[in-house]
Specification:
The structure holds two protein chains of two kinds.
Chain A: H1 7-26, H2 41-46, H3 53-64, H4 67-80, H5 87-112, H6 117-125, H7 128-159, H8 166-182, H9 185-213, H10 215-230, H11 243-257, H12 261-268, H13 273-282, H14 284-302, H15 313-321, H16 324-361, H17 368-392, H18 395-410, H19 413-417, H20 427-447, E1 453-458, E2 461-466, H21 467-486, H22 492-497
Antiparallel strand pairs in A: 1-2
Chain B: H1 7-13, H2 30-55
Helix pairs in contact in B: 1-2
The chains are: A mainly alpha, B mainly alpha.
């Protein structure tokens, strides 16, 4: 990796970073509409619940396909080959799931003024305990995810030749300030710039790079040679024992994807259920992009790159093959690509804290303006926490926690989603299912050395399955059995809470 | 109509069906272009279900 500062790239980088900073602060006055509620959590935390199909497309696209993805997916593909491509089936089958589930959740949220997944759970089941469980899972799963966005930013800052932690801290402080002032409108507006930049970078890369390297056949052949030399569970095709993990990782990740606070915030911020349905049709465009980004991992083999840290694959590829001005543009795209999800994640976590911890336990009579004030401060704390995380704790810790976070957030699926389709379940059964899923999933993952895949031996042959999906099955089985045993009796707490009006 | 939404799950989660190198397309092994082709197909399927629902007045 170059250690001297790449001045041309740095100037371009700073220029674009300055542009989005101005946009971030200006965003507080953007898209206010006639129905602006003044000081209200709906404004700061959900952008006024007013985003149409286009804004939602850019926002969710910019938020779901994170900067970390741009760095980590090619890194995994570079390291192991075909297995890293599970991200592709994952981000395809997620859209039928979104299409079926999310319009219903949006209606629930819209009718009752819910801001978070835990709000939905409280509204449907009237159980403070289940609400707390879902909110806590959301916050804990999101924190390491924010930290990983910083990791993506760190990789490109390093590629620019800057050393030390100051640039990263400075970028994050700027982000914290405009998120504080403009709320969800800031990442929504910046997402336009970010997504266009990423599209340009990737389209140029997938045309230009193979031309320099001798075409796609040569790219795949070079990768194949590298994997043959490397051996083990790597290759252009999946090994037989990798197929089940590949499929279950894709399915489990797809079910978990929109349980995260940042993705669900994008859903609740849209102006209608129809906006969400249209987006389920058009968001897959980003999946094409992701597939092309993943190929960068193979291109790195064709370019004969050797890296010490797999996360340096993409920045190094750009530095090697692009002129420095375009490398600067590409790095800016990735860094800005980290800002959008980091902002939405911190907003989602703040909404959870405010609505599901602060309001029920500290200040039940809080006004919407008070909620907004609390959430804004919490967003600063959340970001500071993520920065400390990356600067002072080993990177592996963030990676492991993010992985466990995926297992954990998936355990909220029954509580959040089932009520949109059936009135059969009650809070105690769902809570027991959640607890079993959390404990079982964490225990299995820890026992396997924080690996996402668990291997069974069954009838002489072994089967490896995504731990999160395994825990979800245990979760649902427990919930169904317990519900069948307990029957439809509502607890006292629940009966008292229903019917519950909006805010 | 809603049954159409199950097709991407079948097409993509039954991995042995597409874990092959051949036939290649534009230098892409089958494994890769097959998955990429599912992106527009899935969009189309969701769009068909969306259109159908809209016609039946589901547009709430």
């Amino acid at each position: 990796m170059k250690t001297d500062i790449n001045w041309t790239a740095l100037v371009i980088f700073v220029l674009f970073f300055a542009l989005v900073t101005v946009m971030g602060f200006a965003a507080s006055r953007w898209n206010r509409g006639v129905s602006h509620k003044g000081a209200h959590l709906d404004e700061w935390g959900l952008g006024g619940r007013n985003f149409g199909a286009w804004i939602t497309w850019f926002l969710v696209g910019g938020d779901f396909y994170t900067a970390y993805t741009v760095i980590a997916v090619p890194a995994l593909v570079y390291a192991v080959g075909a297995y890293g491509f599970f991200a592709l089936p994952y981000t395809i089958i997620v859209y039928p799931i979104v299409f079926v589930i999310m319009p219903r959740l949006w209606h629930q949220a819209h009718r009752a003024g819910h801001v978070t997944a835990a709000d939905v759970v409280w509204g449907q089941y009237g159980s403070r305990t289940l609400e707390f469980a879902v909110a806590l899972t959301g916050v804990v799963a999101t924190m390491p995810y924010i930290a990983l966005q910083l990791l993506g930013m760190e990789a490109v800052i390093k590629a620019l030749g800057l050393s030390g932690e100051l640039p990263l801290a400075a970028a994050f402080v700027i982000l914290a300030l405009y998120t504080y002032s403009a709320g969800l409108r800031a990442p929504a507006l910046i997402a336009f710039v970010k997504d266009l930049m990423i599209y340009i970078v990737v389209l140029v890369a997938v045309v230009l790079v193979p031309m320099k390297l001798g075409g796609y056949s040569a790219v795949f052949a070079a990768a194949n040679d590298a994997f043959t030399a490397k051996g083990g569970a790597t290759g252009l095709l999946l090994k037989p024992q990798q197929m089940l993990p590949f499929a279950t990782l894709a399915l489990g990740s797809a079910l978990a994807a929109f349980m995260y606070p940042h993705t669900l915030t994008g859903i609740f911020a849209s102006n209608s259920a129809d906006t969400i349905r249209k987006n389920a049709v058009f968001l897959p465009a980003y999946t094409v992009l992701l597939g092309l980004i993943a190929l960068l991992g193979f291109m790195a083999h064709a370019a004969r790159l050797t890296v010490t840290n797999n996360n340096d694959v993409v920045p190094m590829l750009f530095n090697t093959l692009f002129p420095s001005w375009f490398a600067g543009f590409a790095f800016a795209a990735i860094a800005i690509g980290a800002l959008v999800p980091a902002a939405v994640m911190s907003i989602g976590a703040s909404n959870l804290f405010t609505r599901n911890f602060w309001k029920p336990y500290v200040k039940p009579d809080i006004t919407p303006a008070g909620e907004q004030a609390v959430a804004k401060v919490v967003s600063l704390v959340v970001k500071a926490g993520a920065l400390v995380f990356i600067l002072f704790l080993p990177t592996k810790f963030a990676l492991d926690l993010q992985l466990l976070g995926g297992v954990w957030i998936l355990q909220t699926f029954p509580s959040v989603v089932f009520s949109a389709f059936s009135r059969w379940f009650r809070a105690p059964a769902l809570l027991a299912g959640w607890a079993v899923g959390m404990v079982y999933g964490s225990w299995v993952a820890f026992a396997d050395g924080t690996k996402p895949v668990h291997t069974f031996v069954f009838g002489g042959s072994s089967y490896a399955v995504y731990t999160g999906l395994l825990a979800l099955v245990a979760n649902i089985v427990v919930a169904v059995v317990l519900q069948a045993v307990l029957g439809g009796r509502r607890s006292g707490e629940e009966a008292a809470a229903v019917p519950r009006t909006g805010r | 109509m809603w049954i159409l939404l199950l097709l991407p799950f079948i097409g993509l989660l039954w991995v042995p069906f597409y874990n092959h190198a051949l036939p290649a397309l534009f230098g892409f092994p089958f494994f890769y272009w097959y998955q990429l082709v599912w992106v527009p197909i899935t969009s189309l399927l969701v769009w068909i279900v969306y259109r159908n629902g809209a016609r039946e007045g589901e547009r709430r």
